[in-house]
Amino acid sequence: MRTVLYVIFLNLIAPIQARACELALALAVDVSGSVDQDEYNVQMQGLADAVRDGVVSEALVQAEAAVMLVQWTGSSRQVVSLPWKRIRTFDDVEALAAAVETTPRQWRNFSTAIGEALAFTLRQFETAPLCRRRVIDVSGDGVSNEGIEPRKRHPQLRAAGVVVNALVIEASISNLRAYFWENVIIGEGAFVATADDYSDYPDRIRQKLRRETTKQLVCAAQRCAPGEDG
């Protein structure tokens, strides 16, 4: 009888143990033709430094987070640059940051297919650890001009429980934030952060990751108001 009860107990706690991960975070970086090599370097170094930020690194470790990196540009041009990595220690944080800042660029001269990037990144959650929150952090400096429109991916993302947040770089397109607000982000607490240009990117991605990795903000109507871009 004791053996039976013990087996039942193990079966009950197994899902809890398997779900120790709080956050699965996919970092989706724009490498389309509008992003030159210097701007790519700013993105990757800024992202690596943001991961090392004290608040972010602490939150990642406490969440036992899983993090991956995707590069994307035009249709059929998306790649997993860094597969899912569990973050359980600060050594794991440093290893992730070092891998990010040394990741070579995959493409240089193609279009901007945000809908395809979202679909590709969503599929990667099929191999992710079981985490309570699932987030895609997508950056970009232009509107989608190839492939399926990003809004058409929203039903799939919603069904999978994946939140999409965005960081827009308004270097050459004014009011790009409004486009991402209306067409790209989706999910409870989803938000858009804005960098005026690439020199502003490192500070904004640090602030954005702080917001994503710490306690999630829940706003009315399941998204933050347009003025609240963190």
Key phrases:
about 230 residues, disordered C terminus, 8 helices, Rossmann fold, 6 strands, disordered N terminus, about 20% strand, alpha/beta, 6-stranded mixed beta sheet
List strands and helices in order, with pairings.
Elements: H1 2-18, E1 21-30, H2 37-52, H3 54-62, E2 66-72, E3 78-86, H4 90-101, H5 114-124, E4 131-140, H6 154-159, E5 162-169, H7 176-183, E6 192-195, H8 201-213
Parallel strand pairs: 1-2, 1-4, 4-5, 5-6
Antiparallel strand pairs: 2-3
Helix pairs in contact: 2-4, 2-8, 3-8
How many domains is the backbone divided into? 1
Please give the number of β-strands.
6
List the uncertain runs: 2-19, 217-228
What proportion of the residues is helical, as a percent range? 40-55%
Overview of the molecule:
By secondary structure, the chain is of the alpha/beta class. It has a single domain, classed as Rossmann fold, CATH 3.40.50. It has eight helices and six strands. It has helices at 2-18, 37-52, 54-62, 90-101, 114-124, 154-159, 176-183, 201-213, and strands at residues 21-30, 66-72, 78-86, 131-140, 162-169, 192-195. The chain has a six-stranded mixed beta sheet, with helices on both faces. A hairpin with a 5-residue loop joins strand 2 and strand 3 (78-86). Helix 2 packs parallel to helix 8 (201-213). The longest helix has 17 residues, at 2-18. It is globular. Residues 2-19 and 217-228 have low confidence and may be disordered.
